UniProtKB/TrEMBL annotation:
It is a multi-pass membrane protein. This is MgtC/SapB family protein. Keywords: Cell membrane, Membrane, Transmembrane, Transmembrane helix. Belongs to the MgtC/SapB family. The chain crosses the membrane at residues 6-23, 35-53, 73-93, 105-137.
């Protein structure tokens, strides 16, 4: 694989992860711009390493019996991001906070993986749809679910709904 392609994929993953991170940073969430850029970059790098390993161990080039399965790295990215996502989910009394940020980290890892595989359109569309979900669907969700009926009517000490959605910035 050409060095410029590798660098381009890493840069694109970092940029797209940053785009998702800006929205979380603007809402003062625990996983913001830097976390999202690092998740996308790391996912992309792992993916590139697995693609490279498959290329190195291709039939006729690799030692006898050697083989690579790039899907194994991808599955481990998903497992690893689960631990990171669990770290941003907090229980506050009867409320659970940080689910949206954890889900966004999961999507960011997928974007990095897609960039590493060269699936640029999928990565870009995923970022666009995630931003639509994060920004445009927030008021729709609030409209559809009245404050008194949101997930058991739990509220934190500041009066924000305890619905798993991150509170608005103050």
């Amino acid at each position: 694989m050409d060095s410029f392609v590798i660098i381009g994929r890493l840069v694109l993953a970092t940029f797209l992860g940053g785009v998702l991170g800006v929205e979380r940073e603007a809402r003062s969430q625990s996983a913001g711009l830097r976390t999202h850029t690092l998740v996308a970059l790391g996912s992309c790098c792992f993916t590139l390493a697995s693609v490279y390993t498959e290329w190195v161990l291709q039939p006729g080039v690799s030692p006898n019996g050697s083989q690579a399965d790039i899907s194994r790295i991808a599955s481990q990215i998903v497992v690893g991001i689960g631990f990171l996502g669990a770290g941003v989910i907090l229980r506050h009394g009867g409320a659970v906070k940080g689910l949206t940020t954890a889900a966004n980290l999961w999507v960011t890892a997928a974007v990095g993986l897609a960039c590493g595989l060269g699936m640029y359109v999928a990565a870009g569309v995923t970022v666009g749809l995630a931003l639509l979900s994060l920004v445009l669907l927030r008021p729709v969700a609030r409209f559809l679910t009245p404050l008194s009926g949101r997930h058991g009517s739990q509220h934190d000490e500041e009066g924000d709904p305890a619905d798993g959605e991150d509170p608005p910035p103050k």
